[in-house]
Amino acid sequence: LTAQDMWLNEGFAQFLGNFYIAGVYGEEAYHAAMSPIVNNMSTKCRTQDYPPINAMPLDMTYDGDAVYDRGAAVVSTMMKYMGRDKFLQGLRYYQEKYAYGAASSEDLMNALTEATGIDMTGFFDSYVSVAGVPYYYVSIQEIKPVGSQYEVKLQMHYQHLSGEHVGMHNVYPVTFYDADFNLHNDTVCWDGATGFTTKMLDFEPVGMVADFDNDYLEGATSKKEMLVGDNTASASNIQIQVETADSVFYCIENHPVAPYDDPLIWGLKLSTSHFWTVNIHDFGQANVTGTFIYRNSSSMDGDIIQTENDSATLVYRANASEPWRELAHTCNPSNKWSMGQFIVNDMKSGEYAIAVWDKAHFGTEEQGSIPSKMQVFPNPADSQVNLSWNGFCNAPRPEG
């Protein structure tokens, strides 16, 4: 062991202190202890210039975040990646093989592979040997009944934040749930930036939560909770207010990347820095109100809200099989154009993102030479309308 590989000592020590909780107080207590560490390191690994964890500079060897908590989060992810039984089997072999001696990160990787038959090269390449942190996104593309089962088609994405690495041997946990909130835990596996897979389920899924226990170190952060009665909760610039005599489950995932499948609507710009996945399950008759906060700070929406011409709005889709669309909401702006809130009544599960309409494209002042009579046909219309008028309009025409 060299000082640069100190995570093998301190990261494991930090993890095992929390893992002990599982044996004494149960799994729920363990996840409650690990989740804040994972969220904290998910944020710091994508925003701070941490070097690869197996090549830590000597002046950072005992850095509490870069080594201790990051190491614990890597080990937590490793256990989920391998499965607990295989993980413990591999660690016993590793300890026996290198007892009273020295070992490196590569030695650990090889020992785990030898003991379990799981090729750990891809995991160590993505989590140990490079800076930054992986980011995973799994989306439902289609659900259709097949006999007594349901075929669920999924698409997976890998991005490496703070680096150009592309992950191989990617493994990521997902949890499907039905109308009665029965949970089905599964994993998806793929190589490279994108992948596709199909799952056959014995029930019709009404929702899917990625990394339900929040044990995985990745770029996204997650918070879930069961709210009982009238209550409020907040996470990642969203506030949820619940009015119910029963209970409501919610999970908010904050994705630190541009929303996938930009609709490319002329004049509309989607955030390039973040979007949310929200899962809500109502166990009774509940009224759920969501408040989304936006501001033009560098850490939030400064990428698209830059001048008074940028009119912020909220877009939504139920899942990746649908296009993004502007969502009906109440806007509660501050006394500045650069910040405010969107309030959504009867909030639903789905994906949400901040977007802006550029007023420069749509001017609000009256234009000269606008015709007095315009025909719109067909009316009503399904997906396309035609406009005709006599005279000329000097408003600019979009390209394309």
Oligomer: single chain
The secondary structure category is alpha+beta
Q: How many strand segments? A: 20
The number of distinct helices, counting runs of at least 4 residues, comes to 7
Shape: globular
Overall mean confidence score, pLDDT? 91
Topology order in helix (H) and strand (E) letters: HHHHHHEEEEEEEEEEEEEEEEEEHEE
Helix content: 10-25%
CA-to-CA gap between the ends? 60 Å
| Low-pLDDT segments | 366-372, 392-400
Q: Strands, helices and their partners?
A:
Blueprint: H1 7-25, H2 27-47, H3 64-82, H4 84-97, H5 105-116, H6 121-127, E1 133-146, E2 149-161, E3 170-177, E4 183-190, E5 194-201, E6 207-210, E7 221-228, E8 231-235, E9 238-243, E10 247-255, E11 268-270, E12 275-282, E13 287-295, E14 310-317, E15 325-326, E16 330-333, E17 339-344, E18 350-358, H7 359-362, E19 374-377, E20 386-389
Antiparallel strand pairs: 1-2, 2-5, 3-4, 3-6, 7-10, 8-9, 9-13, 10-12, 11-18, 12-18, 13-17, 14-15, 14-18, 16-17, 19-20
Helix pairs in contact: 1-2, 1-3, 2-3, 3-4, 4-5
Mind explaining what this structure looks like?
- There is one protein chain.
- The chain is globular, with a radius of gyration of 25 Å.
- It contains 7 helices and 20 strands.
- 24% of the residues lie in helices and 35% in strands.
- The strands form 5 sheets. Strands 7, 10, 11, 12, 14, 15 and 18 form a 7-stranded antiparallel sheet that branches. Strands 8-9-13-17-16 form a 5-stranded antiparallel sheet, with no helix packed on it.
- With 400 residues, it is an alpha+beta fold.
- Strand 16 and strand 17 (339-344) form a beta hairpin.
- Helix 1 (7-25) packs antiparallel against helix 2 (27-47) and helix 2 crosses helix 3.
